[in-house]
Structure formats: C-alpha cells, structure tokens
Design goal:
3Fe-4S, metal-binding, 4 iron, 4 sulfur cluster binding, two-stranded antiparallel ribbon, 3 iron, 4 sulfur cluster binding, single chain, binds iron/sulfur cluster, iron-sulfur, Alpha-Beta Plaits, 107 residues, binds FE3-S4 cluster
Length: 107
C-alpha cells in the first residue's frame, strides 16, 4: 500500500507534506510532487498536512484519479528527492481547487 499525490497538487505544490514524511519518499517536479510507492510506509502522516487535500491512500483515490497511482510511480523514478519545505508556487491559492490540472503537468 502507498499514498498517492493527485491532481490538486499541480500548480500549487505547497510542500507541507515533505516535512512530516519519516522516510523522505517525496520527489519533486517543476509543478507537482509525487510519492515513491516502493518507499512509502503507509504511515498516513502526510495526508492531513496537505492544504490542497491532494494526498490519498491508494485504496481511497477519488473516482477518475486512478491514473495518478501509475503517474506517481513513474515520476518518482525520474524526479529528484525533496525533504525540505519551500514556498508554494506563485498563484497557488488561485489554482487550489481547480480541476483537470493534469493538462498543465510539467515534466
Ligand atoms: Fe511518507 Fe507516510 Fe506519506 Fe507515505 S504515508 S508518503 S511514508 S508521510
Ligand atoms: Fe502537493 Fe500538498 Fe504536498 S499541494 S506538495 S501534496 S502539501
């Protein structure tokens, strides 16, 4: 079991999540973070920390976001590790809550 970062992280990237992860399994792209499924220990600490409510347990992913399970696995193998909180992206508050941000994902 793993936790998964989903659509609402895109273009927000608040990064509160990385500070609580005991195994440092977050990986960072230009406008999105992902969780490495082989490293996540399923502790659930990150889920309530995300201001954008973008993190879900693999078995509680909202309908239509199942593709993020594979996307997290794919990108976690490519992107660099992130362990310290940084400022959110400019415009994060305006983008928070918008849907279909996957179209704006930068790799
Ligand atoms: Fe890290 Fe725990 Fe969140 Fe997995 S569930 S990403 S181990 S904080
Ligand atoms: Fe993204 Fe939420 Fe972390 S917006 S960077 S999953 S705190």
């Amino acid at each position: 079991m793993t936790f998964v970062v989903t659509d609402n992280c895109i273009k927000c990237k608040y990064t509160d999540c990385v500070e609580v992860c005991p195994v440092d399994c977050f990986y960072e792209g230009p406008n999105f973070l992902v969780i490495h499924p082989d490293e996540c220990i399923d502790c659930a600490l990150c889920e309530p920390e995300c201001p954008a409510v973008a993190i879900y347990s693999e078995d509680e992913i909202p309908a239509g976001m199942e593709n993020f399970i594979e996307l997290n696995a794919e990108l976690a193998d490519i992107w660099p590790n992130i362990t310290e909180k940084k400022d959110p992206l400019p415009g994060a508050e305006e983008w928070d809550g918008k849907t279909g941000k996957i179209a704006d994902l930068e790799r």
